[in-house]
Structure formats: C-alpha cells, structure tokens
C-alpha cells in the first residue's frame, strides 16, 4: 500500500503534489489545511484522512477531528497536527501511539524518525513558504505490516 503524506498546505495545493501522489492508495493530511477545497482536490487522487491544525478555521474544524486513527495495510496510523505538544518532537508525538505510523505537522520541518515501535513522520510544509524550510511532502509504503517512508522535496531551501 502506498500513502501520500502532506501537512501545512495553508490553502495552497501545489501542482507538484498531484505528480508525486499519483497512484497512492490513501492520503494523510496532518492539518493546517486552510480550506476544505484542498481536501476535495486530494480526494480526486485517493481517499483522505485528515485532521485540523491550529490555523484552520471553524469550517475545517467542524469537518475534521483533532486526532485521527485509521488502519491501513494492517497498520494503525495516527494523525495529529502537533500543536497539542507545543513544539512537537518525534518523541512527544509518538507518545500518543505505540507502534505503527504516526504523522504530524505544525513545525514545518520535515523528518522521519523511528521512536520505539513507531515510524514518526513530519512531511514538512507543502503550502506557502515559511521560514527557510524546504517545501516537502512524504511517501510511505506499507508492505507486510512494515512501514517505510521517504521525503520528497517539491521546492528546495532558498539560497
């Protein structure tokens, strides 16, 4: 099973996302969506599991949970934005779930780290550039309940 992982779109869905996510079986959005239209566009590619983030307005918060849990490819996937942890770290975020895949956003800093039995992924920010971080998403694969992920840079770090 192939997953597209995305976060912090803040109302901007870059066209490169459609190329990178082509053929994925499921998309996980870790919050700060910006507008429900973003989810509608992603749903044209694959089913979407999403949570709201700290900058999302009432309309998004009414439709999405703060924490989502879904089983994909026999693996439990937990999705949070990360504002619940102040400055989220893989260790803090992994504490919400033992094992499987944990996806979060908020910091705009892409990372993949194993904590205990969980693969923790922050796909970074895919929306408007903030700070000096690259614009990224991630792809994950689940095969025989083993999870692997890689970051995909849409726009490199400036300068």
Could you say which overall geometry the principal axes of the C-alpha atoms support?
Answer: globular
Secondary-structure element sequence? EHEHEHEEHEEEEE
Task: Indicate the low-confidence ranges by residue numbers.
Answer: none
Determine the N-to-C terminus distance. 36 Å
Number of helices: 4
Strand content: 35-45%
Radius of gyration: 14 Å
In total, how many beta strands? 10
Report helical residue fraction.
10-25%
Calculate the mean pLDDT score and round it.
92
Strand order of the largest sheet: 3-2-1-9-10
- Structural class assignment: alpha/beta
Largest sheet: 5 strands, mixed
Summarize the structure in words.
The longest helix has 8 residues, at 36-43. The protein has 159 residues and is α/β, with parallel strands linked by helices. The protein has helices at residues 15-20, 36-43, 58-63, 90-94, and strands at residues 2-6, 26-29, 48-50, 67-72, 75-80, 100-103, 111-115, 118-122, 135-143, 146-155. Helix 1 (15-20) links the parallel strand 1 (2-6) and strand 2 (26-29). Strands 3-2-1-9-10 form a five-stranded mixed beta sheet. A five-stranded mixed beta sheet has the order 4-5-6-8-7. The protein contains four helices and ten strands, in the order E-H-E-H-E-H-E-E-H-E-E-E-E-E.
């Amino acid at each position: 099973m192939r997953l597209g992982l995305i976060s912090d779109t803040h109302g901007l869905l870059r066209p490169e996302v459609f190329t990178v996510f082509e053929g994925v079986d499921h998309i996980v959005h870790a919050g700060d969506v910006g507008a429900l239209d973003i989810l509608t566009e992603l749903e044209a590619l694959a089913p979407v599991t999403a949570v709201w983030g700290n900058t999302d307005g009432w309309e998004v918060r009414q439709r999405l949970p703060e924490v989502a849990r879904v089983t994909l490819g026999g693996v439990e996937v937990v999705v949070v934005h990360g504002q619940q942890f102040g400055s989220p770290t893989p260790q803090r975020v992994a504490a919400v779930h033992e094992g499987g895949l944990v996806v979060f956003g908020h910091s705009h800093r892409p990372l993949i780290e194993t904590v205990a039995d969980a693969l923790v992924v922050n796909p970074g920010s895919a929306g408007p550039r903030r700070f000096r971080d690259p614009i990224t998403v991630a792809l994950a694969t689940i095969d025989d309940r083993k999870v692997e992920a890689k970051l995909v840079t849409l726009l490199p770090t400036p300068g």
